[in-house]
Amino acid sequence: MKEIKNRFCMWRRTITGWILDNRVNLFANMAFGIIVYFMMFSNNLVNSYDGLWWFSRYFAGYWERSIGRWFWPYLDMLRFGIVSSVLNGIITLAVISAASIMLAHLFGIKDRKTVFLAGISFTASPLVCDILSYCYMSPTFAVAYLFSVTAAGCVIRLGNTAASVLLGGIFIALTMGNYQAYFSVTCIILLMHLIRMILEQEELKRIGGCAAKSAASVIWGGILYKIITSAVCGIYGMSLSDYKGAANVSVSKIIENMPRRIVDACRAFRQFFSGNQIQNNIFGNAIIQIFLIAVFLVFVAGRIRTVWKQGRFRVLLLLIMVLLIPVACNATLLIAFESDVSLLMTGGMVVLAGIILCMIRKFEKKRVVRAVYITGMCVAVWVNVCVVNNDQLAMLEGRNATVTIAQNIAGRLMEDGYLTEDTTVAFVGRPSDNPLFKQSSAWKMANDYAAFGRWWSKDNCNRHSWNGIFSEYCGLNIKLCMDEVYNRILDSGKIEDMPVFPDEGCIDVICDTLVVKVSNVY
Q1: In whole angstroms, what separates CA 101 from the centre of its chain?
Q2: Cα 95–73–152 angle (5° rounding)?
Q3: Which of 161, 252, 268, 420 is the most buried (most CB within 10 A)?
Q4: Interval 10-22: pLDDT, tens
Q5: How far apart (Å, rounded) are the C-alpha atoms in residues 454 and 446?
């Protein structure tokens, strides 16, 4: 017992000391994030998907456990399930800031300016804006990021092989128990560390040992995650959901789908850095990101001559590892073989620019190359600040348009005497496709998550979103029909001939349910 107490005190002093030593960067990164996302916090902005569904209080439970996110409920308990844009946003930024500083330190960077720039390159990304728009669970994403960095840190920093593999695997399991996509962050950190070891001219034996530790931690983490997931399902008497193929994942299927998913991972990497499928905006950040990758490739090319002196095998090893970067950035796709990449799953690619900054800062002797990359990073950060502020503006304008339509619908129903205590209502269609909905320039340019009002039109998704609008923003308790009734209404064939709100005839009674046709997209 005394030994446990002493270790606890040691860990507490270590954590407290780390916070005090890095308080300047922690404060600066958080202050930067609060300024960038001030519009979101001050206006309580959320996306119109899951972000709109849950408000006031939310405790993760059956659904989250059924999709393998069994650690999430404990985080909700820790903050009493409070859904507050300001509180959850500050917690999220604090955790992300700490993780970003830890990441820079893993690559031997202690210079405050470099650590700050690497940190805010992640904080200002559309990924973090998307995370914050899921107010009810934004701290869960942040903790997943922290655990993913910690997992890599255990493998890299701990000298004892058994301890590094054990703790690294535990944190990988915890990462996936929050949000599985951050497994990719661990993978890209470990891969870039191996590249760093080659550039530092480490012995091949040490490089191979680190690669073996990394692989062992990943395998052990996957096994532990699977064991805990199965145990949780057994304890709560549930089975894994089919959501994104979670119930179908197995070692044999992972191996079977590996070639196809490697191609998918490379394609996702290309689309993220050179396309507009994931980050749908017109600010030109794709050009900047391609430029940053080009500078990195020039940096690698410059290092090849130095590495060549140590042997051709090292050069071959370096080139193979560089080619594996797209796969490591999207490693989640290799295990979630029925899933496609969404913005929330791009953490591995978002951290890459900051990691490369740390590598160039450490190894590049030429000030010109360093200055060029740092300048490109600064431009990229500013572009992302503009992108995420455009997204916040789109959420605000889209919410105003959606709420105005909802209030007019409610007023019409009340005036015509439709709304009573026993009235069940079905809203067919989403507001963004209604002719009264104002699609501003910001809304049209925004990333998909920020286009408020353009939500999923599937039965239960549509119901949750409309419920959130009327409950949270209109203060009305409107009883919405259940999914099976909604689908019967759609199958009746009567909806097609109805005009959309506010035209006459947009309200009708079908299947004993009051139906309001909002748009022709449903």
Answers
A1: 18
A2: 45
A3: 268
A4: 777 778 888 888 8
A5: 11
